[in-house]
Amino acid sequence: MADAARLARGTEDRRIDRKGISSDDGNPGTFVRNEVIGGAPYARYRAGRGTWVSASMKQVGWDSIFGADSAYGAYHGLVQHPDGSTMATPDKIRPGQEYLVPVPIPEKRSNEPRPAASPNAPAQTDEQLSQALDFLTGRGSPRKHRSDPPADVPVSATRRIRFFAPGFLPPSPVFGNEEIAIRRWMYEACRYNDVPVVVMAVILQQENGPSASDWLRRAQATERAFQTRAAVLDDVYGGIIWDKVAGGSTGIANLSRATLRRAAAYLVTTYRRPPIPDRVRRDKGDPLIAGLEVELDLYYMSALLRQLIDARVSPGHVGNIGDEQLRLVAQDYNGRGPKAVEYGRKALSRLIAARRGEAPLYFLGEPPGRAPLGVQLGAARGLGF
Fold first, then answer.
1. Predicted model pTM
2. Are residues 50 and 185 in the same domain?
């Protein structure tokens, strides 16, 4: 774990402009101590006159991950108050106020020497060869990923997912291409963080009850849309809306703002990976608010599942998990107490019913197909075809 006090000794005072971007005459505040919260390392700081949170972020190393335009990650909801709540307005820090800055964990590098490449070794890889042969033979069978569903869990290729997209007057059920997109995004989000897509499919079905009436679904979608709007306004106007409303659970994954942001911070600090991949963030942003975009919600959910699996199974676990582990992860997803325990049991029962063919997992579609034609052609050209 990085030592914030050691880092502070080699850091000069910096000035921060009105947007919270570090320059020469500001300061990162006073380092108080290192803390570990939820398995993630944090540095506690105390603000003084002229302190800016972005200077603290830069001091512990976030400038190697985020740019100055985001105040080195301060505007991504990474900084917390001592009570664990997210600091929504890091540019309004007051002297004497204490706050927690996550400390990025250095990437682990192997000390084992890499074998020298043979001068006669072919330039192509096995992956390229497979893609080229798929193209030339027309097989096109998808390459299995370690987070894809196991063989004993059937996919639901034709059944509707019965999800109502949140919205006002009135919410409407998704269908056709929207359903296909949601299923594809699930696989992409799970593969991004190496979490089992079956776990996501089970929990999504729990959060979007398939047995609920259309009226109840519309009411639930409207409530979630209202909470999403409240969260957006609360962020824009600096915490003016009641936390139980603005911080409520919303979106397809039914995530609260605090849970979402803790999971995003965990992903960044533990794996040095942003919650939203660059290709998606360039198009849809990274608001750290649930309910704005289904695709973003699935990536945020994937980050939370990564955090829960690390805690319940093992850090960095890859591939599918056992039934009892799935029950505990689903239980933790819901929270604590008797209702969470029952939630976990229902999640496991839902998976067992899917295995038996009694009730499909509506969100679990076919894995994405073979590589795009352009990729296959490129591989074929590289092999000399």
1. 0.61
2. no
